[in-house]
């Protein structure tokens, strides 16, 4: 016996193919998207010949299974869509009467589809908690305050190029070798540790034009916003206290010094939504990890896994 798999998407395709052609829009008045009437969800709106009744809410739910263009076609010709659905509904009832739901492969297809839909629904439910109270959000902020730390960061950058060492750059300055650049920035660090003004040295020596123009100011960095920054720089900057300077940090084309000019924290009002999302994510990850760790399949026949 041959079994045909029918789907709501096929219904949408059939409807799109049979829908009456629409008049082309005028240049100055584009047509509005079709919309269902504003009927309360619990209102019965459609009856079928087996006595089944569809409410407005159930109809809206059915339509969400269609792709956007198919859904618009269905709404534009809602009677045509419902005639198609009535046909599918009747054929499905015939399949049940013939007990096709108890035969392979339909039985397994129904099991797979039902399990998948329910599992996705529970995952969605768990990932969107009903409420996270203000006290929990306050406690999270206090316990994770370092995540919202801001470091107003100054920098000195000394570039090098071994391949072009001793040549003159476009700015008229000699291009340094790696060894020369390291010696220069090490000397600057020694001056800073003896009390020299970091900003003054940055303005006079840094090869980074943007920060040099701002007396060495590079950016205000926060742990949560520092993606893309190399680990060596991120770890060194966020280990600083206000007024402290890092050691010399090597990068592919130059050496860096960083100074924490000022350290503060993002205001609670600015990060409240981030905290809410972080709590949601942590709850979901904890729930998912628990399900994963606690749920294992029991193999009843070792031959299934090759005797393992």
What would you say this structure looks like, in words?
With 308 residues, the protein is α+β, with helices and mostly antiparallel strands. The strands form 2 sheets. A 4-stranded antiparallel β-sheet has the order 4-3-6-5, with helices on both faces. Strands 1-2 form a two-stranded antiparallel sheet. The relative contact order is 0.09. The model is unreliable at 1-9 and 11-21 (pLDDT under 50). A hairpin with a 2-residue loop joins strand 5 and strand 6 (254-265). The protein has helices at 8-18, 56-63, 68-76, 78-97, 106-127, 134-143, 178-193, 198-205, 209-213, 231-237, 268-294; strands spanning 44-47, 53-55, 149-159, 217-221, 249-251, 254-265. Among the domains are: 8-17 and 37-117, no CATH class; 144-265, Chitinase A, domain 3 (Roll), CATH 3.10.50. The protein is built from 11 helices and 6 strands. Helix 1 (8-18) packs antiparallel against helix 4 and helix 6 packs across helix 11 (268-294). The longest helix has 27 residues, at 268-294.
What structural keywords apply?
single chain; 308 residues; alpha+beta; Chitinase A, domain 3; four-stranded antiparallel sheet; two-stranded antiparallel sheet; 11 helices; 6 strands; disordered N terminus
């Amino acid at each position: 016996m041959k079994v045909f798999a029918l789907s709501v998407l096929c219904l949408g395709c059939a409807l799109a193919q049979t829908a009456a052609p629409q008049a082309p829009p005028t240049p100055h008045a584009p047509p509005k998207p079709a919309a269902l009437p504003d009927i309360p969800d619990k209102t019965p709106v459609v009856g079928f010949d087996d006595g089944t009744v569809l409410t407005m809410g159930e109809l809206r739910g059915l339509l969400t299974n269609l792709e956007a263009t198919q859904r618009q076609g269905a709404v534009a010709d809602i009677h045509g869509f419902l005639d198609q659905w009535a046909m599918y509904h009747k054929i499905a009832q015939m399949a049940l009467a013939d007990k096709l739901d108890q035969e392979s492969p339909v039985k397994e297809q129904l099991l797979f589809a039902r399990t998948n839909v329910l599992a996705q629904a529970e995952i969605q439910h768990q990932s969107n908690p009903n409420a996270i109270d203000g006290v929990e959000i306050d406690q999270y902020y206090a316990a994770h305050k370092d995540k919202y730390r801001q470091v107003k960061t100054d920098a000195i950058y000394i570039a090098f190029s071994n391949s072009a060492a001793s040549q003159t750059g476009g700015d008229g300055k000699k291009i340094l070798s790696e060894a020369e650049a390291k010696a220069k920035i090490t000397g600057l660090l020694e001056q800073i540790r003896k009390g020299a003004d970091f900003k003054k040295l940055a303005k006079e020596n840094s090869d980074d034009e943007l920060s040099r123009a701002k007396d060495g100011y590079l950016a205000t960095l926060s742990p949560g916003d520092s993606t893309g920054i190399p680990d060596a720089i991120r770890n060194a900057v966020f280990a600083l206290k206000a007024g402290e300077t890092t050691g010399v940090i090597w990068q592919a084309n130059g050496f860096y010094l960083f100074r924490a000019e000022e350290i503060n924290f993002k205001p609670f009002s600015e990060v409240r939504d981030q905290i809410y999302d972080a709590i949601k994510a942590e709850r979901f990850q904890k729930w998912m990890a628990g399900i994963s760790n606690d749920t294992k399949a029991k193999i009843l026949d070792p031959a299934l896994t090759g005797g393992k």
